[in-house]
Amino acid sequence: MARTLCRIFKGCQSICSLPLMKTRLHPSASVLLRTVCVRRMLTLPFRFSPKAQDFSLPNSSWGAEMRQLYEHYNSQCEEEMKGEEKQDWAWKRVPSYNRTLKHATGGVYLSKIYQSKARFFTRNIKEPGAAFEYVLFVSKDEQKCVCIFQAGHLLEGPQGYVHGGAIATMIDTVTVTHASVLTLLIMTANLNINYRRPIPLGSTVLIDSSLNKTEGRKVLISCKVTSTDGSKLHTEATALFVVSRLLGG
Ligand SMILES: CCCCCCCCCCCCCCCC(=O)SCCNC(=O)CCNC(=O)[C@H](O)C(C)(C)COP(=O)(O)OP(=O)(O)OC[C@H]1O[C@@H](n2cnc3c(N)ncnc32)[C@H](O)[C@@H]1OP(=O)(O)O
């Protein structure tokens, strides 16, 4: 914190002491100065970015199947926005950010000093489509969650197929999001996975989760990974989440 403040102070000093400030600036110098100022501003400890990138929106790496399914679920979300008083909606899209903290703040990046290098595990690869491409929708009664997942080439396990750990990651991500809709401050306590059929790299699959039960601090969720038409079962799992005392629950 002290180092950051010191850097800002030095930054201001160096900008103000620029000789160019006293004269009329050449356009290229003015661009340079603006760049320096913006860079210095970006080192401020309480930097607010009004629009964080939402990684669950379509990008150029999405295949036809992924887009089609996205449009299918998203169109059912839109009904809510058309919003006559009692207009019903079936699904809600869950935004997805590159830092865990942003999920708690609805996308607002609070401070650079918190975990400046930490990134949310599934959203830390810059090349779109290279690893985890996914979007999650939750149903209106919050008893169901569906994820459309396109597995990129960096997730290879066996030749041409998705790594079991990557599948587990997605199952954890989907079920924890589902459980988070029901209760906050949870930790995965147990994840039980049966791998039935490998998932080809580059393919799109559906990950469906359903609430089994809640019991005191425990939330039990089951989950299935299938082909997009539902005809092939790739993986099935159950997950137990416990409201964590450590996280303040
Ligand atoms: C719309 C908005 C949504 C947006 C939303 C986006 C979300 C996007 C960011 C999220 C972020 C990603 C996060 C990913 C999810 C992780 O990856 S979490 C990380 C992996 N998990 C861990 O590290 C957990 C480590 N373990 C622990 O911290 C603790 O053991 C636990 C799990 C909190 C439980 O500890 P505890 O609170 O002391 O629990 P304890 O009192 O012993 O047991 C409570 C009950 O649970 C049972 N239990 C505890 N552990 C187990 C177990 N392993 N097996 C079976 N039963 C168990 C006990 O038997 C007990 O049962 P009852 O006696 O009450 O019937």
UniProtKB/TrEMBL annotation:
Gene Ontology annotations for the cellular component aspect, listed alphabetically: mitochondrial inner membrane; mitochondrial intermembrane space; ruffle membrane
Primary localisation category: membrane
Pfam families attached to this UniProt entry: 4HBT
Topology versus the membrane: Peripheral membrane protein
BP GO terms, sorted: apoptotic process; fatty acid metabolic process
Family: Belongs to the THEM4/THEM5 thioesterase family.
CDD domains the record matches: PaaI_thioesterase
Native organism: Parambassis ranga (Indian glassy fish)
Reactions the enzyme catalyzes: (5Z,8Z,11Z,14Z)-eicosatetraenoyl-CoA + H2O = (5Z,8Z,11Z,14Z)-eicosatetraenoate + CoA + H(+); dodecanoyl-CoA + H2O = dodecanoate + CoA + H(+); decanoyl-CoA + H2O = decanoate + CoA + H(+); octanoyl-CoA + H2O = octanoate + CoA + H(+)
GO molecular function, one term: hydrolase activity
InterPro entries, sorted: HotDog_dom_sf, THEM4/THEM5_acyl-CoA_thioest, Thioestr_dom
Domain Thioesterase: 159-231
Alphabetically ordered keywords of this record: Apoptosis, Cell membrane, Cell projection, Cytoplasm, Fatty acid metabolism, Hydrolase, Lipid metabolism, Membrane, Mitochondrion, Mitochondrion inner membrane, Transit peptide
Protein name: Acyl-coenzyme A thioesterase THEM4
Keyword Mitochondrion among UniProt keywords: yes
Subcellular location: Cell projection, Ruffle membrane; Cytoplasm; Mitochondrion inner membrane; Mitochondrion intermembrane space
Source species, domain of life: Eukaryota
EC code(s) of this entry: 3.1.2.2
